[in-house]
Structure of Citrulline utilization hydrolase CtlX:
Amino acid sequence: MSQTTNTILMIRPVHFRMNEQTAVNNYFQEDLDLKNAEINAKAQEEFDAFVDKLRAVGISVIVENDIKALNAPDSIFPNNWVSFHENGDVALYPMFAENRRVERREDILLRLEEAGFKIENIIDYTEAENEGVFLEGTGSLLLDRINKKAYCALSARADEDLFIEFCEDFDYAPMLFTAFQTVEGKRLPIYHTNVMMCLAEKFAVICLDSIDDKKERKSIVKSLKEDGKSIIAITEAQMHQFAGNMLQVQGHLNQRYLVMSKAAHDSLTVAQINDIEKHCPILSSSLETIETCGGGSARCMMAEVFLPKA
């Protein structure tokens, strides 16, 4: 069992733009005064440069192109609709925005099988959409695969009952809490857990200030410390630069890297960078257009492939 993988799936966008259906509760999204074609072209440039950086250090990136006819503005964030597990299980997740549901593509699973990965079982939670119930993959769930704990900040995109069902199906202990951000003077739930928290093998980067309930905050800190993880706390301002939206992956010779955007990297203090680099080097790439219009960053773009080889 490993917390990190050297293989990730990424979807190259063809219709990237600000998604009005997700903007209702993703307060990280902003409108850019550009035509959609320009926005998509900039996103493609950022995507390609990011993939090149990942491959340069030996991370295996499977790039699948989005399909134009689907008109899916957020297809660049595949970790919300699928997760891949070491026993060959694949989970498919219910998504809040109707125009994101077309992102779930069987041909992508076939592509992984063609690449030599073994899919044993598909656990499909997508019927929950009919009840207006959502759980958006590893956006909503942070999986500590070694200690078998799943962390989840409840929101309109992370339903408690469905989260518990996932934990029972996959044998994870549920670690539930609520995380907030200030929007126009109000404390509102953060749409995805993975923008305020990152779980690596030996450390966690987390915006503790966003967990308003002191008992919940203590409980999360206690759980992380019990598992021997160093805690690197970030501020809400840093979280808004996507400093929580990071992922640890493996490159050449099993070297671990903490992958993040340039904005996230630039927001960190020298002390925070030193704390991270005690564990592994940082790899960052500029994702400005994707972050601004999509309200997601580096971690959201990478679906980790833990499937066994056939």
Notes: The two ends are 17 Å apart (CA to CA).
